[in-house]
Amino acid sequence: MTATSKPAEFSVPEAKPSTHLSAVEIARRIAAGETTAVAVVEEHIARIQAVNKILNAVVVECFDAARADAHDVDERRARGETLPPLAGVPVTIKECLDVAGTASTFGLPSRANHRAEADEIHIARLRAAGAILLGKTNVSQCLIYTEADNPLYGRTLNPWNLDRTPGGSSGGESAIIAAGGSALGLGTDIGGSVRIPAHFCGLASLKPTSGRLDDPGKYSVPVGQRAIPSQVGILARHVEDVALGLTIANGDPDPCDPARSVIPDWSGVDVSKLRIAFYTDDGTFKVAPAVRRAVNEAAEILRAAGAEVTEWMPPRVPDAMTLFNRILTADGLAGVRNILADNPRAPQIQQLLRVTKIPERLGNGLRQVLRGLGQTTMATNLEAVTAATAAQYWRNVETQLDYQEAFADAMARADGGPFDLILAPPCSLPAYLHGATRDLLTGGGYLTLYNLLGYPAGVVPMTRVRAEEETERKPGLDYIKKLAQRIERGSAGLPVGVQVVAKPWEEHRALAVMRTLEKAARLRPDFPWTPVTPPAP
User: Fold this and answer.
1) Catalytic residue among 18, 104, 169, 210
2) Out of 94, 207, 286, 481, which one is annotated catalytic?
3) pTM for this prediction
4) Bridge partners of residue 187, in order along the sequence
5) Nearest to 181 by CA among 496, 532, 460
6) Is residue 94 flagged as an active site residue?
7) CA-to-CA distance for 136 and 181, rounded, in angstroms?
8) Which of 22, 140, 170, 193 is catalytic?
9) The 3-state secondary structure of 274-293, one letter per residue
10) Partners of 502 in the β-ladder
11) 110 carries an active-site annotation
């Protein structure tokens, strides 16, 4: 399916029972003999075959191998073997991650005939734990913008609203999990790529501490820069599944290596003893009313749970956002240009490449002109994507280290602190309209801040946009703000999440808070229940 084609009309069946269940519950039922792995896999394949005609989320199918793996699980149980923790659980994987015998194209037509020789390590760990791989899911080209849309596979649609993107770059993953085609998935995150899709699609997700689950991919932002390393992250419909997936992907602990340390039991965290900061505006981009409400409601839930919750403003986030962009584009995206070579380019990536080719002297003048025309947001974005010399890059990394130290100090010394965790918006807006990321790159520093810091950060679904709170932005000249207003209009009913951030290597605390929020939010009438059946196109 191309980015502009319409799928044929057909009837989408209701999700079958196992496609509504958590990964933990599916594994329990299979181990207890209440169902079979074969039955579960067939139900999920049928669901994918139905909804994928609309969504275009799964771009590589592994159905025959999945059926064989499911038979193996059932035979092991019949022999009385103790099954591993994900035995029989259907999973999907972001297309850029290597699976033996399949392509990892990153949305590049030139790699369509690529075949991986072996499973990427985190996938190998999930499969060793009994997970059954159903397929691989769509991405943004070179994983560099927050949509799942590329010249090879086309565009993925959001199951909540087909005019909206499921996010990116792990957008295919979030769309198929939200629609009930998969119970658990792996994505990657260097600037929000598992958290924005979770927020846009009503899921839970977690990006771990930088260095815990390093992403080995080499066809995106060059891995040669190690100041902001991409991490493999987990997506699911339930926080307990995110926790289990993280533990398994982390592998066997190594007491000599903090990146492979044991992840403490998240269920043993006493939320009432935590000190939690929250904010709804980081000074980079104003959030939509529903996003602000979600964070405030999350703060109240945690207060009711006994936690000490304090409103707080993180230090110098606009500067941090500029620093993030300058580090990742220090080569002027020359590495991405080399990767693209003669491949057709998605409009979103073409726009970014044009901006990074503007000479610095010309860029200074252009920014002044833009500000004079009232385009302040565009001028600020332009300033942040400037090519650097090696010496400038090193200075930027030194500035990053200084900022990490200042941020930790601010958490420790704040009134109401020292803080254990932070509540924040995951993005300033609900799910974007298709194509919006050509101009609206990140929607603020809410996500990228924690990639710059290297902190673990998760998203948990909280609510949906109400009709009366779609937008409160005033008319003006600023094109980016007008684009944000267009995104907010018509957003009623879309899911809204909250971001939960912990200190490095303390993912268990983030998961405990996410679980507390999830339990309370699920009791509310506006909780974004998944799986969701996509509307007819």
Assistant:
1) 169
2) 94
3) 0.94
4) 233
5) 532
6) yes
7) 12
8) 193
9) CEEEECCCCCCCCCCHHHHH
10) 421
11) no
